[in-house]
Amino acid sequence: MKKKIAVIGSGIAGLTIANLFKNNLNFEIMVYEKEKTLSLEEGYGIQLAPNSVSILNKIGLSSLDNKEFSNPSNLNFYSSDNHKICDLNLSRFNSEEFKYTTLKRSVLIEFLKNELFANNLRFGKEVKKISQIKEKLLINFKDNTNDLVDFIVISDGVFSNTKSIVENKSIQPVYNGSIAIRTILKNLPVSNYDKNSISLIMLKNSHIVIYPINKKGELNVVCIIRQKLSNNIDLKALIKKEIISQNKKFRKSF
Ligand SMILES: Cc1cc2nc3c(=O)[nH]c(=O)nc-3n(C[C@H](O)[C@H](O)[C@H](O)COP(=O)(O)OP(=O)(O)OC[C@H]3O[C@@H](n4cnc5c(N)ncnc54)[C@H](O)[C@@H]3O)c2cc1C
Fold first, then answer.
1. Where do the structural domains in the chain lie, given as residue ranges?
2. What's 3-60+106-167's CATH class?
3. Ligand 1 atom, smallest distance to 45 CA
4. Residue 41 in this model has a pLDDT that exceeds 80
5. d(Cα 116, Cα 10) in Å, to the nearest integer?
6. Whole-angstrom distance, CA of residue 222 vs CA of residue 44
7. Whether the CB of 162 sits within 6 Å of ligand 1
8. Alpha helices in the chain (DSSP H)
9. Is the CB of 180 under 6 A from ligand 1?
10. Atom of ligand 1 nearest to the CA of 39
11. Rg of the chain over all Cα atoms, to the nearest angstrom
């Protein structure tokens, strides 16, 4: 008799594990996602270390179009006045098969979704309660439906609500008081940064990370600023104060 696995959350973690189990005849797998659709926000990048690539290759990532990803060779550290401080050679962690990889998050999610069958995914399903009934686990969803399964994989992200439900206590991530600002650039703001590497620019109270996400020249920019999150942040003023004032080359980037 097949064992039934419920995967909670259709982020990268949930979709990956579902793909790994999908062809195993001993298991029946279902992914439950609280949102109405998959989050395919354009633009944002993701970095995959060789170990993640080795897992994703088991489900065919190596067949992805070569133009859709990049393999940065170095992580270069720069000072606020764009002088290189030092570097880390990322390719030393690579093997012939598994290389440090960067790509658009939406490209990865699309790939993971396409490899799954439509009947492996259910949307609009937010976990309300989980109870044990003999050897089985009963999941009650907020839309008053339920499922009886053998195993549950909780992959509902850093703000996981399901972990709190299972543990019966509130589990919250520790917030260190920073915010992330992201954008996509077509050109490097500073000519001496290497477009085939990851650039990390160290500023006071903030840092900026720039990396290629494909072979079309698109670059992902993430800027982390030490600033408590609130509803009334003046983003323009914050960027001016914490970034542009220290590095004028970023004036046109945001
Ligand atoms: C600015 C920024 C940059 C980042 N860059 C990188 C990077 O370069 N590399 C990297 O590895 N990571 C990066 N991360 C972290 C990245 O977000 C995670 O690595 C990755 O998205 C985690 O995937 P996940 O599947 O665990 O969770 P998520 O992507 O958060 O997916 C969780 C899913 O579960 C669903 N869900 C939540 N609660 C429930 C519920 N009760 N019932 C059902 N479904 C539910 C959510 O809707 C969501 O679809 C970055 C994060 C940020 C904010």
1. 3-60+106-167, 66-103+175-250
2. alpha beta
3. 8
4. no
5. 11
6. 9
7. yes
8. 12-22, 50-57, 105-114, 162-167, 235-239
9. yes
10. 49
11. 21
Other beta carbons within 10 Å of 205: 13
Distance in angstroms (rounded) separating the CA atoms of residues 132 and 140: 11
Q: Which residue has the tokens 């000519």?
A: 191
Ligand 1 proximity of 101 Cβ (cutoff 6 Å): no
At 217, list the tokens: 């020249």
pLDDT value of residue 40 = 77
- In the numeric block, which tokens belong to residue 225? 């600023």
Nearest C-alpha neighbor of 63 from the set 71, 73, 72, 53 = 53
Q: What angle do CA 106, 42, 207 make, to 5 degrees?
A: 95
| Neighbouring residues of 123: CB distance < 8 A, sequence distance ≥ 6 | 10, 33, 35, 36, 37
Q: Tell me: the pLDDT tens digits for 219-239?
A: 999 999 999 989 899 999 999
* Amino acid letter, residue 151: F
For the record, the structure tokens of 208 come out as 């900026």
74-107: pLDDT as tens digits: 999 999 999 999 999 999 999 999 999 999 999 9
Nearest CA to ligand 1 atom 7: 46
8 touches ligand 1 (CB under 6 Å)? yes
**Which residue's CA lies nearest to atom 14 of ligand 1?**
46
Nearest atom in ligand 1 to the alpha carbon of residue 165 is: 41
Give the distance, in angstroms, between the CA of residue 251 and the centroid of all CA atoms in the same chain. 27
Can you name the CATH fold of 66-103+175-250?
Answer: D-Amino Acid Oxidase; Chain A, domain 2 (3.30.9)
- Predicted TM-score (pTM) of this structure: 0.91
Atom of ligand 1 nearest to the CA of 105: 21
Q: How far does residue 140's CA lie from ligand 1's centre (Å)?
A: 23
